[in-house]
């Protein structure tokens, strides 16, 4: 029996006879405040509600057709296999029909229906989401951003005035929740942080525009909008209805995914995603914007949850839960604004000694930024991390340039509160002393981990290495020599036997 409170069209779309194909009964209806989605088995049909919220306006048939078409176009980028067509719905008398004769009264987006078990959120809740999948997501999102459109018009959305308008609006819309799920102290501190951030970083924001890191992004990249289907990670349901939510810094997208995982108490999964993404793009400087966007995304989640408190139709028990959830996100938004003490961690050792494995393990434990010399070298050489480097990438001049860049990035990020792990051979005492001197000059906590393993283990690891960005081979290893650590270096140094468990040593 259909729900009489639903529009007549939706009531008919819940009947199997409406569709020109077989359906799985009963047809399921999912609703949000802006759309209806009908799940029929092989296909899903999405309709936009005739609503106008200011930032989103679907109030006319022409607007709904336009934004259905935009949703199809934009989601072809990240989930082309799911998004099929925009179809007209016609009406003759009291009967509605897909692509029938008569007057077009509505439009629907036809999509392939995928099993809900493929949703990243479902996989997370079942404890199935792995760091390997998050690393693959990092590569997928990096490729998505590399292909995303940019232009002078899109660049303009990277202006401070544009970015801060949306953030200030969030604060204005949540003033009334101070004393409820939000506290006065958190509200003032979070707002003060963003004011100071914009005031002191004009050059940084200008560089984001100049280097075209403002792109037509996804805009809503959290676990509910990522799925795995046919062994492929898909990014779906991007923002189609509002340009300022879509024309954003790539770090805006990245922060949404990281924040979603940290809010769910799995920062290690967020770290696996973040470090893989950055390694692919080479946009280590962009990490400077991460605290701003992490706070912004948590704040938006808090704001939207707070809106439920104003809805008279929401039961009291659900409102109490919403208040606790909103409070959690307001606190998280504030925590992201708190000053942190950065540190510099140097990995050292010959090829195959387990430096990268140890660094990855450590990064997941401490939320560290893991920067590999292999990736830095290849970005400097103008090739992707996956490509094999030629001899020109391994000249003494290029090696020095790589270490200079590695240290420059390490100091830049550590002085802004990040724990940075520089992962390179650091086989020469001169390279290590330069890093120690810079850390001391900037008063940064420093640690040097010297990774070791027997020669036969190093050779076996290099033989078995596949799919990694490092180019070193057994032949290269035979030419390597590690200059012993000096007495000057020992106060910061610790030797790690990578054939033994890491946790007890770290």
From TrEMBL:
Short name of one Pfam family: AAA_33
Protein name listed in UniProt: Gluconokinase
Organism of this sequence: Neosynechococcus sphagnicola sy1
């Amino acid at each position: 029996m259909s729900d009489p409170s639903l529009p007549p069209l939706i009531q008919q779309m819940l009947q199997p006879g409406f569709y020109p194909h077989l359906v799985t009964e009963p047809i399921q209806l999912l609703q949000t405040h802006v759309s209806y989605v009908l799940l029929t088995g092989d296909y899903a049909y999405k309709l936009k509600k005739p609503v106008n919220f200011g930032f989103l306006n679907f109030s006319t048939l022409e607007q709904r057709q336009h934004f259905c078409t935009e949703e199809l176009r934009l989601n072809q980028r990240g989930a082309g296999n799911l998004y099929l067509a925009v179809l007209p719905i016609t009406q003759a008398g009291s009967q509605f029909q897909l692509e029938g004769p008569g007057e077009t009264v509505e439009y629907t987006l036809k999509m392939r229906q995928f099993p809900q078990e493929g949703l990243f959120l479902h996989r997370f809740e079942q404890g199935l989401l792995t760091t390997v999948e998050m690393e693959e997501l990092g590569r997928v999102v990096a490729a998505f951003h590399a292909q995303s459109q940019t232009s002078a018009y899109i660049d303009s959305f990277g202006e401070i005035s544009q970015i801060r308008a949306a953030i200030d609006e969030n604060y204005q819309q949540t003033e009334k929740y101070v004393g409820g799920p939000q506290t006065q102290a958190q509200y003032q501190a979070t707002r003060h942080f963003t004011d100071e951030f914009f005031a002191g970083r004009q050059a940084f924001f200008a560089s984001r525009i100049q280097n075209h890191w403002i792109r037509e992004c996804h805009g809503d990249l959290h676990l509910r909008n990522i799925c795995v289907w046919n062994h492929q990670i898909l990014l779906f349901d991007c923002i189609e209805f509002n340009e300022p939510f879509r024309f954003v810094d790539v770090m805006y997208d990245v922060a949404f995914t990281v924040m979603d995982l940290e809010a769910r108490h799995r920062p290690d999964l967020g770290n696996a995603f973040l470090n893989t993404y950055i390694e692919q793009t080479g946009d280590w400087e962009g990490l400077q914007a991460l605290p701003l966007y992490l706070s912004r995304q948590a704040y938006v989640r808090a704001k939207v949850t707070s809106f439920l408190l104003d809805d008279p139709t929401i039961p009291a028990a659900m409102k109490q839960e919403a208040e606790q959830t909103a409070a959690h996100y307001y606190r998280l938004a504030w925590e992201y604004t708190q000053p942190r003490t950065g540190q510099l961690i140097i990995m050292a050792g010959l090829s195959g000694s387990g430096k990268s494995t140890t660094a990855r393990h450590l990064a997941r434990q401490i939320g560290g930024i893991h920067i590999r010399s292999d990736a830095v070298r290849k970005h400097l050489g103008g090739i992707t991390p996956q490509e094999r480097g030629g001899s020109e990438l391994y000249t003494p001049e290029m090696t020095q340039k790589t270490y200079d860049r590695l240290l420059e990035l390490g100091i830049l990020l550590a002085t802004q509160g990040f724990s940075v792990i520089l992962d390179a051979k650091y086989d020469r005492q001169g390279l290590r002393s330069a890093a120690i001197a810079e850390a001391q000059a900037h008063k940064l906590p420093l640690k040097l981990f010297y990774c070791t393993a027997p020669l036969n283990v190093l050779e076996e690891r290099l033989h078995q290495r596949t799919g990694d960005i490092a180019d070193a081979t057994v032949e290269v290893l035979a030419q390597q020599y590690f200059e012993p650590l000096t007495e000057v270096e020992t106060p910061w140094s610790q030797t790690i036997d990578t054939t033994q468990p890491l946790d007890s040593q770290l």
